[in-house]
Structure formats: structure tokens, C-alpha cells
Amino acid sequence: MCFNSKDSSMSDDISQRITALRRELGSSLAILGHHYQSDDVIQHVDFQGDSLELARRIPGLDARYIVFCGVSFMAETAALLAKPEQTVLIPDSKAHCCMAGTAPDRRVAAVLKRITAAGRKVIPLAYVNSSVGVKALCGRYGGSVCTSANAAIMLKWAMEQGDCVLFLPDKNLGMNTADLLGIPNQDQAVLNVREESAWNEDILARRLLFWPGVCAIHFRLKPEDVLLVLEDKPRPLVFVHPECDPAVVALADVSGSTSGIIRAVREAPSGATIYIGTEDNLVLRLARLHQDKHIYPLGAGYCSAMLKITEQKLLDTLENPDRHESVRVDPEVAPDARKALETMLAVMEGTK
């Protein structure tokens, strides 16, 4: 009991110090937080959202310091879209998304070169869960990026730009989006990026090619997890993220981005029982916010990369923002990566 009391006291002290520093820094500071962050961190952010919502915020911010509470690719995106005089910080620079790591930019460059050599105009479309180097390749090849919230819009756009699209790195999001758009299975193929000898003419002739990456969190969910809860009486609702396996998505009542899941929960009837297949920080927060509904995690678990951002590390960042290492993007890749991001924002602006 004494340990818990001390731990709570320390947490309160950290929280109060962050609040004081935010007040002191005033308009020179903007803190952004992804929905998958813990409540300890989320309570301090100025803007909370999914990848698309937060990316849209960056160009309109005037703050000198932009602190991004999320994973490293999100902070890189902020650095690409921020003004030259702004400083982008992330409380832990080692908060790397493992999905992004499945698509090294050198390997992606070799795959794009091979497809182009086959006489096809390939348009790379990268999920934002990718490195800045991969985003730069997208810009260089006339492609763009997408989020889970706008994947359908961006994939439809990309399919109109060339002979084929290379969707990367998450094959599940790609396949679920293709299904949503009604793209025939015979027009799709998952590439074996380790053995190019397996790429026959039939594979290279497909209109939509998928990189074989997955999200370690959503990959855990299996069809049997959904089937098990569907045995409950009365039948519960099941909401899942489109990074889940297509077989899981096919069994769910809703497949949506983080913001889409939040909206679906809000619109669900009072008293409903809902199982949610996405990162547990968000699921448990939704359960606390909607106590008129019975909300449970489907079992995806916590994102270890997101958990690297803690309240203590946020405090450390705010105490010495000028001494904290800023997020920098290689100037050789920055223009092409920025082009890919700005293309996405322009396409989305045109859909309003």
C-alpha cells in the first residue's frame, strides 16, 4: 500500500510539473498525441487524433516547439510538414514502429526498379507507418502515402496514376482496402520480396501488388477470437482495425481506422456489448468514456513502441526543449518525402 501511495504521489508531481511547464511555454508549445498513447500522456496533449488528423494539424501550427507523442515515423512526418523555424521533438527517439521496419528503403527501391524494368509504370502507395526513405521513394515515383482513415480514397487515386500500384508495407490494410473498392482478386498479388525469382510474368502483370508486412499488434487477432465472442448471448458487436487479417475483418460488424472505431462506438446504442480489435490503450479509454456500454478488448494488446513514450519522458522533453535532440530528416530525401505527404493532403482536400 505504501508503494502504491508513493507511486501515485510521484505521478501527481510529474503531472503538475508538466502542467506548469505548458503554462510557462504557452503558445510556443504544441503537444500532439496519437490515440494509442497511455492516459498519463494523453491528458497533457493539445491535439489528440489518428495519423491523418494529426498530420493535417501540422501545417497550421505556429508553435516554436512541436512535441509529438507517438512513434518515430509520426514525428518524421511532423518534421517534414513543419515550418523551418519550428522544432519537432519526440520524447523517445527509439519509439520505432516494427511494421515500418519490414520495408527497408533500399529493398523497396530494388523492388520498384525491378517492376519498372518489366515495362510497367508502378505507383508506390505507402501507409504512413513507413520510414521517411520509403515516403521519399513514393514521391520520386509519383506516388503518395495514406492512413487507415483514407486508404480507400488514396488507393483509388493511385490506381488511376499508372499501370500498377505497390501498396506497402501492410498487406492486410491493402487487401482489406482492395476488397472495399471491389478490386478483383485476380488483379492482386502479395510479393515475395526475398525471392525475385518467384515473380513470374503473371505476378508482375497484376494491377495491385502488396508488400508482405503486417502490424505485430493486429496480426495477433485470429478468426477464432471473433467466433468465440460471437457465441455470447445476446450477440455482441465486433469492431476491428483494417490492419487485421481479412478473415477477421470479414467477421466483424465494423472495420475502421482509429477515428472510425471511435465514431462507431459513439454511435452504438446504449447498453450494447462491444468487442474491439485494436490497441488496448484506446479500447480501455473508450470503455471509460462510454460507461453506458460494455466495451472489451478483443485481445490485440499494447503497442510496445507507443509505450516507450511516458509521462516522465514528456516532462524531460519540456524541461529542456532546446537541449533535447530534435527530429531531423535527411535533406537529400526530405523534398520527395514531403511531396508524397503533400500529395495525400491535396487529394484529401479535394474530397471535402
Provide an overview of this structure.
- There is one protein chain.
- By secondary structure, the protein is an alpha/beta fold.
- The protein has three domains: 2-96 and 307-319, Rossmann fold; 100-215 and 334-349, Rossmann fold (3-Layer(aba) Sandwich); 218-302, NadA-like (Rossmann fold, 3-Layer(aba) Sandwich).
- 42% of the residues lie in helices and 15% in strands.
- It is built from 15 helices and 13 strands.
- The strands form three sheets. Strands 6-5-7-9-8 form a five-stranded parallel beta sheet, with helices on both faces. A four-stranded parallel beta sheet has the order 2-1-3-4, with helices on one face.
- Helix 1 (2-25) packs parallel to helix 14 and helix 7 (151-159) crosses helix 8.
- It is globular and about 65 Å long.
- It starts with a helix and ends with a helix.
Order of helix and strand elements from N to C terminus: HEHEHEHEHEHEHEHEHEHEHEHEHEHH
Strand-pairing-aware structural class: alpha/beta
CATH class of the largest domain: Alpha Beta
What's the CATH topology label of the largest domain?
A: Rossmann fold
CATH architecture of the largest domain: 3-Layer(aba) Sandwich
Features of the shown structure:
single chain; 352 residues; alpha/beta; Rossmann fold; 3 domains; 4-stranded parallel beta sheet; globular; disordered N terminus
What is the gist of this entry?
The chain is α/β, with parallel strands linked by helices. Helices cover about 40% and strands about 15% of the residues.
